[in-house]
Amino acid sequence: VIQTLVDVISKNGNLMLNIPVRGDGTIDEKERKIVEGISSWMKVNSESIYGTRPWKIFGEGPAQEAAAKLTAQGFNEGKGKPFTYEDIRFVTKGNVVYATALGWPEDGKLVIKSLAKNSEHFQKEIQKIEWVPTKQALSFERNENGLIVSLPKDNSDELTFANVIKILS
After folding, report:
1. According to DSSP H, which parts of 52-155 are helical?
2. Backbone phi, then psi, for 157, in 5-degree steps?
């Protein structure tokens, strides 16, 4: 659900979540677990969702490259290839760009090709990159192949499906 939310938001969309309830108004344990997972992720990453706007491009990665052009596809939630750490979605707020990787790279190095040196999409100098859940500064390198960000070593299962960094210029 979070991956779909991030993907839809990056395309200037809205996501409506429908939670089925029993006749007495209670929610079963499977649904409760999903809602609690969304709540946990939003507690630490909501700044990358609320009040954001689409960026120059909505994303990069294998799932996006396999899909039809945005003008032809609309919102194809749940269709096509599953998301991986190479699938990155972008939004902006003020002078900040948020990049969300829809998976966790095994080596802990996130490579964002769209933010390479001399990129047509991002020509500003990057001053700082933060790990949104903890506000921790992350080390990074920017070269002709992309922006390479070293993600925190301490990752739990909660951090493997949608990992947000804040890029300050």
Report:
1. 62-66, 70-73
2. -55, -30
Q: Is there a contact between 98 and 92 (Cβ–Cβ < 8 Å)?
A: yes
Under a CB-based contact definition with an 8 Å cutoff, are residues 63 and 70 in contact? Answer: no
How much is the CA Rg of the chain, to the nearest whole Å?
16
Which residues does residue 165 pair with via DSSP β-bridges, in sequence order?
Answer: 99, 131
- CA separation for the pair 38, 42 (Å, rounded): 6
Tokens found for residue 131:
């790990």
Residues of the chain with confidence (pLDDT) below 70? 64-80, 154-159
3 state SS of 77: coil
Six token digits for residue 155:
């990752």
Cα angle for residues 89, 159, 78 (degrees, 5° grid)? 50
In this structure, which amino acid lies at residue 85?
Answer: Y
Strand partners, 64: none
Contact between 126 and 167 under an 8 Å Cβ cutoff? The reply is: yes
Amino acid identity at 66: A
Structure tokens at 7: 């993907």
